Amino acid sequence: MGVSKLDVLYRRLLLTKLFIQGWGKPDDLRRIFEFRKTIGNRESCQRMVPKDYPILIDKVEEQADCKIMNGHFISPMDHYLPGIMPSETVTARFQFIIPKEWKSKYRPVCVHLAGTGDHFYWRRRTLMARPMIKEAGIGSLLRSSLRNVSDLFVMGGALVLESAALLHWLENEGYGPLAMTGISMGGHMASLAVTNWSKPIPLVPCLSWSTASGVFTTGVLSRAVNWRELEKQYATEAVYEEEIVRMLEYCGTDSFNMGQEFVKNSPSSLDNLQHIDLDADIQDLNVKRPGIRTGAVTQLHREKATIGASAAEVLFQDASKTNCSSYGINSVITNKYLLYENNELLKRGKRRTSLERESMLFMKGVMDECTHVGNFSVPVDPSLIIVVQAKEDAYIPRVGVRSLNEIWPGCEIRYLEGGHISAYLFKQGLFR
To answer: How far is CA 263 from CA 63, 218, 356, 357, in A?
Structure first.
């Protein structure tokens, strides 16, 4: 199955860059990876958010067809990893939309998590929440959601705990049955949240899959990743390779090693990086950067000077014996230098290719560590899960990663015609 041309075109029209500040602080990554091991286990995670976790309603607005409540609470994530969340996200905000009159004795509510770029409520309120009230009498709770790679992991961990707090609150208020959904990144975050809920709960993740690693390494969004900054940091800070990699796990195996197999078997995935040029301060051999592990620059200069002097000395000695002309000597020296420079360019190109591969492997490893659903508990009842996927989705690659029905036996997968963008724009009715 091919990929949607609309997906590719839409991505090219957007100028947004992802992870503009790099990987994030190494210490933050260490804390996040350790925390992932805790929230990846349902038994330990469900004890982290008490059933009476405080949630406040700030405003209630009566409208013709529904009641809209705005509320907030302090993210439980801030209690366990203080200082790791941006200050503006410590207070979690939500909007709760319910019908003025329920159609039955039940008061069903679906929690909608935001997709990429959906930082406000109006889109989900207009396209999902209001129609769901009209069509099925279902209320909706809308949760509001990258500068660093680590930001994505912080958001994932925060949403797992925040979703638990909201589900507890809804139960305490007498709402139910409860369900969760989301589109694109929102669907993936909803999947992670459901893995840690201790009861059977319906889940409808739309346009998401088992891991986010492919999104940022082989999908069209990989072209929006600031690979230049990521490669620069990976090359100059040994901690990523020497310490962080050792913390990566993927369903009980080493994700970094699996990533090496991924790149070896998927060379076409590196085509996404062809447009990348490293900063001059990494490529330029005339700049002394002792932190760069790809070569000893100072030693290279010394060897270059020695080789040049030795070559010239030998050539002049030979010339005096054979009465070579000055022009001939200069020509030979020039050729020697050109040969040397070409050799250095070749070596530099190989180092650059190696750095690209290592950075991509590291990206796959850290993404799988914190976003692969195989690293989390299996939902209590996978038969309540309906996964909605687009056949030609260029944003969410399914090749080379484990299928959701393999990880969650019993879940249902439905495929829509078209790609990611067309499904988002024109298939909202099918999502509902």
So the answer is: 54, 10, 11, 8
DSSP 144: P
Q: 194-209: string of b/e by CB count within 10 Å (b at 16+)? A: bbbbeeebbbbbbbbb
DSSP of 230-251: HHHHHHH-THIIIIIGGG--BT
Q: Quote the DSSP letter at residue 66.
A: E
The count of other CB atoms within 10 Å of the CB of residue 50 is 11
The residue whose two tokens read 């939500």 is: 94
**Superfamily, domain 5-263+356-430:** Alpha/Beta hydrolase fold, catalytic domain (3.40.50.1820)
pTM reported for the whole predicted model: 0.72
CA distance 265 to 383: 33
HSE toward the beta carbon, residue 279, CA cutoff 13 A: 15
Are the C-beta atoms of residues 395 and 184 closer than 8 Å to each other? Answer: yes
CA dihedral 71, 121, 132, 173 (to 10 degrees): -10
- The confidence score (pLDDT) of residue 66 equals 85
The structure tokens 């770029």 sit at: 117
Pick the more confident residue, 247 or 26: 26
- Residues linked to residue 92 through DSSP beta bridges, in sequence order: 73
- Radius of gyration over every alpha carbon of the chain, rounded to an integer in angstroms: 27
| Structure tokens belonging to residue 141 | 């709770």
